[in-house]
Design goal:
With 333 residues, the chain is an alpha/beta fold. It has two domains: 225 residues, P-loop containing nucleotide triphosphate hydrolases (Rossmann fold), CATH 3.40.50.300; 78 residues, Alpha-Beta Plaits (2-Layer Sandwich), CATH 3.30.70. 32% of the residues lie in helices and 28% in strands. It is built from eleven helices and 14 strands. The strands form three sheets. A seven-stranded mixed β-sheet has the order 5-6-7-3-8-9-14, with helices on both faces. A four-stranded antiparallel β-sheet has the order 11-12-10-13, sandwiched between helices. The chain is elongated, with a radius of gyration of 22 Å. 41% of the residues are buried. It binds adenosine-5'-triphosphate (ATP) and magnesium ion. The site of adenosine-5'-triphosphate has 12 residues, from strand 1, strand 2 and helix 1.
Amino acid sequence: MEILSATQLSKQFRSRGQTVEAVRDVSLRCASGEVVAFLGANGAGKTTTLKMLTGLIRPDRGEVSVCGGDPNRDARVLRHIGAVLEGNRNLYWKLTAQENLEYFGALRGMGRLEASRAAILWLGRLDLEGKRHTLVHKLSRGMQQKLAFAISVLHRPRLLLLDEPTLGLDVEATTALKGYVAEWAAEGNAVLLTTHQLDVAQELSSRVVIMRQGAILAEQSTAELIRQYSGQSYTVRFQGTLAEPQVALLAGLPVRLELRDDESLLLYFGAPDGLYAVLEALRPQPLISIEPTLADLSDIFVYLNRDGAPLPPAARYGPLPTSPVLNQEALHA
Ligand SMILES: Nc1ncnc2c1ncn2[C@@H]1O[C@H](COP(=O)(O)OP(=O)(O)OP(=O)(O)O)[C@@H](O)[C@H]1O
Ligand SMILES: [Mg+2]
């Protein structure tokens, strides 16, 4: 069942005579049981999109539907949405941790007793019992982040929008939060998650949507994306530094260069026969090794996002339905 559907959202900001096209024709879906990782470099437009989904920013164009209603037009729809937006801003600094939970619970339609019980439950789950009566501005940054998450799930929303929810969390808290997010989706709710921690995205998400410069660059099932690239990636280690013409030649090939002080290597995505062109471009650098590599989401993200990246030849990635849905225009923007 579809919980979120957003169609062709667009948003421009104007400041000091300049116009920023923050979001261009972005369409998103999120169904019951899904965790969708919403990825993109800084400034790609993720937060702006999430704010349009929660009614915090009115889109210039496009439609949002959450459980059949539009949060930009009908405030009752907000009861179906829980959100952690840009860290801990959705907290009242002069209220205690428990008061914050109860306040926001009531705002989302919970009864007093119900909100109070849920508040105590979540304070316990997130290891914040000891801070129940502490004012929010006296909590550590990670504790505030945990509280923001508790507020987002307290009223049991059908759609959870999480903007970098693990920012500043320690290892244990990150693990706990990942568990709750997975559990939330497994219970039939939908989660849309932005993060720069791509290991978190890889572990949690069933689908990945990548934004670049305001538009959607790629959309694909996480497992399928990793499978496609993993079967066809190689690490090539070589000696010495590259001259400019070599770098220019490599820029036209499906590779990602990593030039470090101690070693130089590149990650090549493609069928084995494409390696000849890479080796030709590397000449006369002595080769150290060529190894098949298991690409992870982080490798794939950096690869897809690099400036002027050419698309990998479609034929090498199998028939179209299994290829990532790549938006040429966004890729070359
Ligand atoms: N209120 C605003 N006024 C003007 N420009 C804005 C405003 N909010 C966002 N922008 C611009 O819109 C673009 C997208 O910003 P957004 O915050 O959506 O990016 P993001 O993908 O969330 O990035 P990050 O990963 O850094 O959080 C940026 O160029 C940003 O400067
Ligand atoms: Mg952001």
